Structure formats: structure tokens, C-alpha cells
Amino acid sequence: MSTDTNPATESTESTEHTPPGAKPTSGAPGRDGIRTGMRPDRQEPTLPTLGAIGMLRWGWRQLTSMRTALFLLLLLSIAAVPGSIFPQRNIDAGRVADYIAQNPTSSPWLDKLGFFDVYASPWFSAIYLLLFVSLVGCIVPRTKVHLSALRSRPPRAPARLARLDEHAEITTSLSPDEALSAARAVLKRKRFRLHSHDATSVSAESGYLRETGNLLFHLALTGIIIGMAVGHLLGWRGDIILAEGDKFASSAGTYNTISPGPWVDTETLPPFVLSLDQLHVEFNETPGRSFGTPRLFDAQTTLQSSPGAPKSSENVSVNHPITVDGADIFLLGNGYTPVITVKDAKGSVLYREATPFLPQDGNYRSVGVIKVPSASPKQLGFTGFFLPTAEPTFTNGPVSIFPDTNNPEVALSVWEGNLFPGGAPQSVYTLNTDEMKQVTKADGSPALIRLKPGQTYQLPGDRGSITFDSVKRFAGLSVRTDPGAPISLVSAILATLSLILGLTIKRRRVFVRVRPAPAAAGDGPGGPGGGTPDGPAGADGRPATVVTIGGLSKDSDPGLAAIVTAITTGVHDRLAERTDRS
Amino acid sequence: MNLAANANAALYASMIVYTLAMLAFTWHLAARAPKVADSKAVAEVGANEREGVLVGSGAPTPAERRPATPYAAGPGFEESLKSRQRGSIALMLTYLASALLVASVLMRGLAVGRPPWGNMFEFATAAAAAVGAAYSVLAKRNNWQWLGVFIVTPILLVLGLALTVLYTEAGELMPALKSYWLGIHVSVAFLAVAFFTLAFAVGLLYLVRLRREEKPPVKPTFIESLPSSASLERTAYSLNMVAFILWTFTLIAGAIWAKQAWGAYWQWDPKEVWTFVIWTVYAAYMHGRATAGVDHRKSMYIALAGYVAVIINFTLVNLVSTFVGMHNYSGM
Ligand code: HEM
Questions:
Q1: What's the ipTM?
Q2: Which residue CA neighbors atom 38 of ligand 1 most closely?
Q3: How far is CA B11 from the centre of its chain?
Q4: FRET pair for B318, CA 20 to 30 Å: which of A210, A525, A571, B110?
């Protein structure tokens, strides 16, 4: 089997002349002619004479050639790199927005070229789709060839065995038939498939599992890709931010964000109900480099598989998702929800909510927004920071110095005007100030609010008050299904196993030929035993047979020499046996 | 004395012994350089072997097919007693140093009660230990004394950097790392890196050896005492093959773990990207090597590029903020 699996050359190759190791580099001089014949893709394409069908066939052959696969693999690896350098929307849209803001000249171009969505970009997709087509186009013909190889007989022994990678010649006083049967026995024991094309030779081949493993490996790669596609089409994910004490009932409308695959019916999401009883969090308090790094996140929840179903207590923590109705619930984030109350001048409550503030750094300096549409005469909006452990002086602005609530504080500015210009929907975490004005104090300076739990701030100009009641933690939970994952997993395991098969098993051919020793046949002047220094003295000292052994392997194969030696030994042993018996 | 302090003591001790081993390996190489007078004899032995009177030598590659050059004599090279003795001393020192390093990693693991690879410092020492151990296990059997200096020197460099730049006190893990997959995924990754490293060193030597076979130098050096370029190439291929299988497993185990920790088995986080890049580059190498008409030298360049990606994956991707993703465990 040729190592260049261009299917066209594969099927037309003459098995007689291209044993498994017939890599053009394997050096036997006579093979160079075969080599050039084996690689049409290296010849100058003679386009004018090809015609449309010919062109197509030529193109297809190019696409499914090993060289193209090699090129596409390299291209894919290079194309993947920018996605690790530029921020990606699929990972962190916020960082992309920051990057674009910081690089106003280059980023529109980068954006147009897809550098912020590399893995969904046309060029990246083009590469992997071509590779996929090439892969399938490669597997199918190779499978056919391999299936027929599995049924075929080892080819006839080449004329000159001494040209093969491994070879040996011995003389023995066994008869040709006996010598051949001794060689056959050794090869049989080594699990070679044997065939004699004539009475004086045997051809043997082993290692068919190599190509089987190789094909299975490539097939399993397609399995992984199919699994990914299924997951993309039929999987969905929904994210929720749930404060301690709150309850969440799953349905298409209740997730903070939901991204269903194109074939997902969002009316049939599992209707579970989940409440967050407590979120247990620990941070490293030992001073040093890892001061403040997280040590434990553990959400204690109560789960019902549907409203009214029996309740069960479940712990969700990092690395320990829970599963309900085929959906997995992961704890992916956490943060703080200050409970804020806003009252009007008369003291009636306009707003009282645990409002999630999103952490921005390792010390949970968090940003958030409080929107009070019911305030009058103008709507009120508050925007600013929550600091779990506020650095008290604020010399560098509002900064948190530890992620746990050792010195919680909110720092907010106040805006009034129209919260929802144009009535367009907007994120709950940003304040659109296009139609708002910052509220100022009597002296004209902006009103800046700093509150610790329990404290209240009277808004200037009889606009009411704002109170920071307390702080609760929130859990960022993600609900996900991926029906393609099992397909990919099984394929991946299969890929690994077949890769091991394909790489470690050696494809070998061994040929043995016997002929009567010239001296014995003619009983010529050299006399019995003359001139064969490497032949052992037989029982009667008369060399009767010359045995030539040649072995070929597909690749570097230290084991091949051992097999050739084993046959030599096998022949000698047979002789020894006969001597013992007589 | 507590375990963590013992671990550090063992680490320092192993660095001292590795330094001695490095010197001994250099000393050994100095003794290997064939004398100009010897090299003729050496060439003859090689030529005889190539004729293959009884049993032919292994699959020759293009380099071997070229007319025998005066020093292209790897297999027939007769090592002097002096060189052999120095090689043994260097190997002994390497065994000792590697044992100390592995012990240091184990003690650190016991001290923290978890797999001892939870931050950059620990990654670096554990990876260095894997390289040292892999070399120690394979060196004697394969007569790899000539490779020693090219393995021990990088180990020393990595350990030095780990201690000076990356040092982190033994501590508890971040929640995302608290999983038995840490033990499986990361240890196999280290093993893969160890084999990639050995293959890289052999691959570089292959290129040098090949070049000098093509353009024989006036004065033979230890390079001329190495196995033939064809044989070096095969060695590098086998090592890369083992590494590639281990890396495939690493990739898959990582995906399984990602599913458990982050809810999706693949989301193109920078570490995932680079693991994938490494995998495809080495897959390209495998293809190149199996493709008729792509010469082994070109394939080797691909493998060397793959190793550059391995290094980037373990350094830049962990440390530089451009690459921040979900794998922020450097402890830096
Ligand atoms: C998704 C893209 C591909 C990947 C990741 C890939 C990966 C690999 C790997 C790792 C090997 C070495 C393992 C072994 O020998 O069993 C290999 C071998 C091979 N691949 Fe691919 N491959 C891909 C696509 C292709 C395509 C499109 C072709 C067809 C042109 C192809 C043809 C081959 C052949 C013939 C071998 C056998 C080499 C040998 O006999 O040593 N592969 N591939």
C-alpha cells in the first residue's frame, strides 16, 4: 500500500511492486521510477486537455490528497491563534467592547475581518469545512482499498529479495520443502497471513490492523465533528443570576439570557424550580501572592423537577454540576446583590430590590445600576460601584481590597431624566444617560453617594432618599444541554484507541524463497559445503538449499530485523530437530 | 522541618546535582569527538555495516543513500573507554538529580494534600521532573548519553526560572482546580511535554547531523559520533508519536473536565486554543512524515514549530494578560 493515499494512485498501483514499505525514500534504487509514477499531484497539471469533468476530478483529487490535508491542518492551526490573542465575543463580549473602544482605528477592520469572532468567521469555517470534506473524501476510497486489501493475498515475492530493507540468505541441508515449511511455521506463529504463489516461495503479510486503526481514527474524527454539530443544533444554554433566598422557575422567558440552538423548541424546556438557599464562599486570607484568591464556592439549593414536585436539597459547586431532566446546572459565577431601597420625598417605597452588581476584578469591585422608573417628576437612575471591602480613603477612586464583605460599601452617582429613550430594551447592567442629567447638590457639584449597610442618603432637592439595607450574595448559574456531547465523547475515545493501533502496529511483508544450493545440485568441483561461509553445516554436512528472506516495513521498524532473524533461527532449529531424531 | 520545606530542600539539591550532570555530559561529549585519524576507521566500519553482509541495516532515508561521507559513521562509531566512563558518571548524576526532583514534587504534593501542580511554579517543577524522569528511564537502554546535556540544561533553566520568577507558597487550590481530573489531565500533559521535549532535542540534533552529513566539516566533532541522521530522525519520530498519543489524551481529558467545570467541553478559551494548535501542528507533522514526497527534514521543521507552540502554551498563555481566559491558575 502506498503511503501517499491519493485514492487514484492507490487503486491503480501494482501491488506486485509496491510492498508496504515502498516509500520513495526507502532507498532501493529500482523504486524511484515507481515513486514518480505514484504522485500525479507533483506533475505539472496539464490543464488544457482536461476538460470540465477532468478539472473537477483533478480538483477533487487535489483536495483529498495527503498534501492538502497537511496544508489545511497547518492552516487551521495558524488560523486558530488570533482567537487566543484578540478578545472573543463568545467568551467575553465586554472585553471586546473595551478593546474596540481602546483601539478605534484598527478595531473596525479587525471586526470586519472577524477577528473578534474567529471561530465563527467565514475564513475559519472555510478551513475546517474543507478539511472535513477532504477527510471524508479520503476515508471513503481508503476504506474501499483497505477492505479489498483485507481480502487479498500477499503479493508474489519480488525477484531480488536482497534489495529489501531487511534481508538474509542462508544455506541449509534441509530440503527446499522442509526449509520452506520451517519458515512458514515461524511466520504463522508471528500471525502473518501466508500465501505461496509457487512451490519455492512464500509471501507473508501482517499488520492489517494498522490501516484499520488509521481509518477508524479518521472516521472517529468525523464523529467528533458530527457530535459538535448536533450539539450546536439541538443544544441550548440559559444563564441566571440568582440572589440568596430567591427562586427561579425555568421557562423560555425567565432566563437572564438564553441561547437556544437553531433546532431547539424553547417551549419544551424542562420546567424545574430552583431556589438558592445559601451561597457559601471562601477566599484565601493568608497574606502573600495568593491573598484573596477563591478557595470555595458552594451553592446550597432546593430543587423541584417541576412546580409542585417534591423538593430535594442539592449542592451545586464548581466541578459538581447537578442534572435535572437532561439539563445540567453549573455554578459558573458569583457576586453581590446589595439590597437597596429608594423612597420618594413622602417616604413611600419606590424601589426595594436585591440588585446584582457584576464583579470586575479579583477583589469583586462590582458595577451595577438601579433604575427607578416610578420616580417623579423625573425618572431616577443610580449607577456606580459595590465594594465588598472598600479601601476607605478612595484616594484611587472606589477600590476593593478583598473579595469578601469585610467593609462593604456602595458608591453611586444619581441621574434623572428619561431612563428608556425611544422605549428600546436595554441591559439591566447599564444606564443609558443620553436623555439624563446628573443630579447635583445645592452647590452645583455632582451628588456622590457613599453608603454602608444600614445608612441612608437624602437626595438633594426633595427627590427622596436611598438606603443600603444589606448585602446578599448571588450565584451565576448556567443551565445547559448538549445532546451531541455523548457522540463526540465516544468518538474521541475511539479516536484515541485507534490512534494507538494505527501508530504502534507495523505493516510488514516478509518473503521467503528457497532454491537448491548450486553445489549440491551439481555436485560440482567446489564439493559439498564449499563456499557458503554463512551456511551451517547440516547433519550430513551437505548444504542442500539456499533460503533467501526479505522483509519490508511501512516505516521505521526495529522489529522487522527480529522477524528475519527468527526465520533464520527457525530453519536452523528445524535442522537441529531432524538431527536429534535421526 | 515540614514537608514543604523538605520539598524545597530537595529541589535545591536536585539543581546542584543536575548542574554536575550537565558538566559531566559536556565532559563526555568532549571525549566523543572522533580524532581525525580515527574517523577513517570509523567510516570504514560504517560502510561495512551499510553493505549489510548478512542482515541489512534499517530503512535508509535519502541522507543515507548519499555517498558515504567521511564521518557519516554513527552506527559504527567506537566509543572510547574515557567517553563511556564519563557518560556513565553523567547518567548516574542525572538519575540522582531526577530522583531528588521527583521526590521534591511528591513531597510538595503531600504537603498540600493534592496533586502538586496547581500554579505556575508547580507546573514548571513538575514538568521538569517529568522530562528528567523520562530521560532517566530511557537513556541507558538507548545509549542516549549524547543527548544528556541537551535535556539537563533546559531542565536547569526551567527550575531556575521557577524558583526566581514563579515561586508561590504551597497553598490550597482554586475551586475550578478541585477535581480528580487535575491529577489525570495535567499529569498526562506533563508526560506528553516530556516526550515532546526529548523529541525536540533529538530533532534539532538530527538537523545538525543531516547538514553535516551533506557538507562534511573539516574537523569532526561529537556530532559525527551521533547515530546517523536517519536513525536520529526515526528516534525523534517515535518520541513524537508517543507524545502525540499522550497529547491526544490530554486534549480529550481536558474537554471532559471543561464540561464538568465550565459547562461546555469546548469554548475556545486560549488554553484550549493552544492545546488544539499544538495538536494540529503535530498531526500535520505526522501527515508530512507519511506523505510521499515531503522530505523528513521539512516534516521535522513542523514538529519543531509544534514544540514552540508547546512552550508558548506553558509560558505566554499562562502569564500574559492578552491570553486571559478561564485557565487563570498561574498563581501570579
Ligand atoms: C481532520 C483532519 C485530520 C487529522 C487531524 C488527521 C490526523 C492524522 C494523524 C494524527 C495521523 C497519524 C496517525 C496514524 O497514522 O494512525 C494521520 C495519518 C494519516 N492520515 Fe490523517 N488526519 C486528518 C485528515 C486526513 C485526510 C484529509 C487525509 C487524506 C488525504 C488523511 C490521510 C492520512 C493517512 C493516509 C495517514 C496514514 C499515515 C501513515 O500511514 O502513517 N488524513 N492523520
A1: 0.84
A2: B290
A3: 20
A4: B110
